[in-house]
Amino acid sequence: MAKTAPEDIVVTDFAVREHRSLWGDAWRRLISSNTARLGMFIVIVFISSATLSHYFWKYEPKKDLDYSLKLKAPSLRPTEEIDSIHIFGTDKLGRDIFRRVVHGGWNSLRVGIVAVSISLIAGGAIGLLAGFYETITMTTMERLLLFGLTGLLLGLLSAWIADQYFQLILFFGLGITSGYLPELFAGKIQRMSFFGAAGFLVAAIPSFFVGLNIALICGIWGLFVGVLLSQDLDGKFFSNVMMRIMDMILSFPGYLLAIAIVAFLGPGLGKGMIAIGIVGIPVYARLARSAVMGMINKEYILAAQSVGEGHGRILVRHIIPNILSPIIVQTTMGLANAILSAAALGFLGLGAIPPEPEWGAMLGDSYRYLTSGAWWAVLFPGLAIMLSVLGFNLLGDGLRDALDPKLRM
Amino acid sequence: MKPLLEINNLETRFYTQDGVVKAVNGVSYAIEAGEILGVVGESGCGKSVHALSMMQLIPDPPGKITGGEVWLDGKDLLKLDENQMQKIRGGEIAMIFQDPMTSLNPVYTIGFQITEALLLHNDMTKKEAWDRAGRLLELVGIPGAEERLHDYPHQFSGGMRQRAMIAMGLSCEPKLLIADEPTTALDVTIQAQIIDLVIKLQDELGMAIMWITHDLGVVAELAQTINVMYAGLIIERGKIHNIYKETKHPYTMGLLGSLPRLDDLPGTELISIPGLPPDLLHLPEGCPFAARCVYRVDQCLTQRPGLEEVDGKDHAVACWRWDEIAGNG
Do B248 and B314 form a contact (C-beta atoms < 8 A)? Predict the structure, then answer.
């Protein structure tokens, strides 16, 4: 009988396999899905056409005007009446729709990126800190900074009403003072009255130079902020305050709030971006907070604390990378949403200012000509909106599947 | 000689919606340098919470350390602020946790996580830290350590992850290693390996170890001193042979009695202590074990016994009737 000598057996260590990083794995899963590939393709076409056209195919909307070419149907070759080619046709001012759609992409991209960045940075930071300090005790320094900033944020309303932005510093100081003196009349009504009065004075005195009514309104708000800051300043309280503010923003229908903000700030693409960005903040704040809270009780956070890592380090090194995947998905979807919102604002005439090519504004300009048969003036910008939103949504869906930790072992 | 770490009257409370949970109720003891201390007791008796309190890692809120002192090197740890505490954690006292599956961060390599602790507490370059991490991983018995540093936690088995955790705990050569049920989530063979590993490491490195477990068999193998905890109190403390051979407290007797024995006949019913541990929300005034104790007298219900030395043999017990019961166990 043939015997196998031990040295003949090839030992393969199956536990050791090729090193794959987390993101490498996710990427592999992403490109293996057809819908995600389609989404990615659309997004890449959209981004590259917008960017390339902006830099290499200059367009000056203010000079683009030719009444002789008004509302011409799409044509693929020059005819005897028109010697230029307009594959998407022309609009009511004789402008080439193809060119405007491509350049409109640049504006949509800008809106998307800026608006989502605003929501992501503000919302993400709020959610992250709120979730983190709900479980982890803050150090004195952190408490001072956090509640100083809370005071500053709340003081923004008063400062804005009175148009005195130096009030922000006073409110910042109020937050710091309360954070620095947690023992001052602790738990007593005096504390509330003291900080309430301080808040009132901080807001009312400077506002008095603007007007009596303003002083009264700001004073009442200051009183409220002061009373709020006189409470037990711990993580739970911070989280509560921030989440209630987020709830307030969420309680308005998104578009309505965006329209209201634009109405305050005035129309224009830049202001539209800010408005859309603000409306998106609560989504990211809630997402980040819930993700952090799901993560913070994991033993490796405790393990990180037990080897002596500081709070900032734990937050940046251990928590952020672990909550990144839902945030990435939300950001991708958020881009689609921001593009759609920008188009809606543009359609209502609150977004881009007219000669500027913007998809929503183009729709708003041209839908009146639909009855006279100029379908192309509406179809192509509409299609551009639809495709770009679809692309980002498909990509977001694909990313969600690719980054889902449940699929990972 | 001064002990390495001295705990006096440590008290930890959790302020919950239902009331105040009295998790640790005045624990006092000392650990000598190089000693292996076993802390045993059933779940919820405050073993882990008292260790986390020492490290100030109790989630606050709802938890709060309401009293006591923890002396290490002439410093009261409970009076240090977060920044000073961060230097102690990992540097002087390290901790390893129950579940190796969740105590490593899934998004970083093992090497990254070990070097992180090294870089925090030592003045060394990344390269040096990485080399040292490799040696540590080798020390805890992971073959091909240098290579495995680049692996992610999911590429390790449970036993290997616990070894990696131990390597992380040892990385800065702490004076005290707190092991919070490190073998509970592992199967018996791996358990035995980890215990052997810890004994070996303790021989080589000479740090003190606090081994928290509910498994009396495990501590019998490695501890020199044992604290038996019940309802947030130490109810018996002594050298290992005192606890196992001259058991004084009825609860410890019950615990030892409930261990299944190899020479039991098949079909022998397992013995258990009747009743449940007291509700920590409403801790009885007297001895917390009184309700379940067969030796109970009236005094047990009204007065709480303190830890009392048993004829000067490094053995202390909190029971009013220890000298009467002794020997009956």
Answer: no
User: Distance, in angstroms, between A191 CA and closest chain B CA?
Assistant: 22
Of B127, B149, B171, the residue at which a domain comes to its end is B171
How confident is the model over A54-71, as pLDDT tens digits? 888 877 777 777 777 676
Closest CA to B248 of B297, B293, B299, B284: B293
pTM > 0.90: yes or no: no
Domain that holds residue B126: 107-171
CB-CB: which of A139, A303, A310 is closest to B103?
A: A303
- Write out the H or E segment, with its range, that includes residue B177: strand B176-180
ipTM field? 0.71
A contact residues 232-261, partner B, Cβ 8 Å cutoff: 234, 236
Closest by CA position to A126, among listed A292, A265, A304: A292
A322 to chain B, closest Cα gap in Å: 7
DSSP H helices, chain B, are: 47-54, 82-88, 110-121, 126-139, 145-148, 158-170, 188-205, 216-222, 240-245, 250-257, 298-302, 322-325
Q: Is B144 on the interface with A (CB under 8 A)?
A: yes
pLDDT at A61: 76
Q: Are B63 and B229 in contact (CB under 8 A)?
A: no
**pLDDT tens for each residue of B38-60:** 998 888 888 888 888 888 888 87
Which of B82, B97, B120 lies closest to A302 in CB terms?
A: B97
- Residues facing B238 on adjacent strands: B226, B315
Please give the CATH number for the structural domain made up of A27-75+84-134+266-409.
Answer: 1.10.3720.10
